[in-house]
């Protein structure tokens, strides 16, 4: 068996959701899912993966795909299904349970106070929310003997993150398909839907007749929907004229021309020979650098 490859046999019996994934959505979901898992070695022998379910459409698909992979793959790994209740309320939680049940999923639910904490945050509430959610998930997964957590981010999320970082963060930062945790030893985060487009996720869920819940935070529920909604609309507009725009945005994170990046200093470069433009990117630099800025402007 080729290292990193995820062999999948043909199942004898399948439920409706599985059947759709291996037939109608084979090219748009199942194939891209297997390609991402294989390329980035997301499921290795002996892994115990925590599939993190929110009740939203993306995590529902991610968990179902992992369930199928574990069921039919020759690679021995385990999946634990977890769901964090950030403060949904009884009605929304019941809606999430109905979606899980319809897809044959039964995650263990644990409660947190994420929403109540985030409601007190004025600046960057989405960043705080994401950090808190991830911390809770890492901790709960690690306590259950897992070495990886799987999130439902898809290809559109990856493209949007790059543009969000550039346009609103002033930095070039990509969403990685797999990365090691800095705070939880031995833990990794994987994104098995990294090659799957959001429109395919929606189409599959509609075909299954399953209704997912949406984010209940004050930012996404607002009239504008936050910065990510703006970026999503921008990409949709660009994609109408340039169908490959999402792939090109993500490809830009793999094809960085380091010689044309202002802050990059090559391994053989003398740090003392930075150009005036280089020094502009280091506001914590010397008084000489600040004087240079004054002279240029």
Question: In short, what is this structure?
Answer:
The protein is an alpha/beta fold. Helices cover 46% and strands 9% of the residues. 29% of the residues are buried.
Please tell me about this protein's structure.
It is a single chain. With 297 residues, the chain is of the alpha/beta class. The protein folds into two domains: 16-251, 3-Layer(aba) Sandwich (Rossmann fold); 259-296, no CATH class. The protein has twelve helices and six strands. It has a six-stranded mixed β-sheet, with helices on both faces. α7 packs across α9 (226-241). It starts with 15 loop residues before the first helix and ends with a helix. Mean pLDDT is 83; it is low at 274-297.
Using only CA atoms, what is the Rg? 22 Å
Helix content: 40-55%
**Major sheet description:** 6 strands, mixed
- Overall, the morphology is globular
End-to-end gap? 61 Å
Task: Pick out its properties.
alpha/beta; Rossmann fold; 6 strands; disordered C terminus; 46% helix; single chain
Write the topology of this structure.
Blueprint: H1 16-22, H2 26-39, E1 48-53, H3 57-72, E2 78-85, H4 90-102, E3 108-111, H5 114-118, H6 125-143, E4 148-150, H7 155-169, E5 178-180, E6 188-190, H8 198-208, H9 226-241, H10 245-251, H11 276-280, H12 287-296
Parallel strand pairs: 1-2, 1-4, 2-3, 4-6
Antiparallel strand pairs: 5-6
């Amino acid at each position: 068996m080729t290292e990193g490859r995820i062999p999948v046999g043909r199942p004898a019996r399948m439920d409706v959701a599985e059947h759709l994934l291996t037939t109608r959505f084979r090219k748009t979901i199942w194939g891209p899912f297997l390609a991402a898992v294989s390329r980035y070695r997301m499921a290795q022998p002996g892994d115990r993966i925590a599939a993190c379910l929110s009740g939203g459409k993306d995590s529902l698909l991610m968990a179902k795909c992992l369930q199928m992979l574990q069921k039919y793959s020759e690679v021995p790994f385990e999946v634990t299904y977890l769901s964090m209740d950030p403060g949904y309320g009884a009605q929304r939680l019941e809606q999430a349970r109905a979606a899980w049940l319809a897809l044959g999923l039964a995650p263990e639910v644990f409660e947190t106070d994420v929403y109540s904490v985030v409601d007190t945050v004025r600046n960057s509430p989405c960043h705080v929310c994401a950090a808190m959610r991830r911390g809770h998930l890492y901790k709960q997964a690690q306590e259950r003997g897992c070495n990886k957590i799987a999130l439902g981010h898809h290809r559109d999320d990856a493209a949007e993150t790059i543009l969000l970082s550039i346009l609103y963060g002033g930095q070039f930062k990509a969403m990685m398909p797999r990365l090691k945790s800095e705070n939880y030893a031995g833990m990794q985060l994987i994104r098995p839907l990294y090659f799957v487009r959001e429109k395919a996720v929606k189409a599959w869920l509609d075909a299954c007749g399953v209704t997912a819940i949406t984010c209940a935070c004050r930012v996404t529920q607002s009239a504008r929907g936050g910065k990510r909604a703006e970026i999503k609309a921008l990409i949709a507009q660009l994609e109408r004229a340039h169908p490959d725009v999402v792939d090109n945005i993500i490809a830009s994170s793999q094809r960085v021309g380091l010689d044309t990046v202002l802050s990059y200093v090559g391994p053989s470069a003398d740090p003392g020979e930075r150009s005036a433009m280089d020094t502009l990117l280091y506001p914590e630099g010397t008084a000489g650098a600040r004087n240079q800025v004054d002279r240029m402007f």
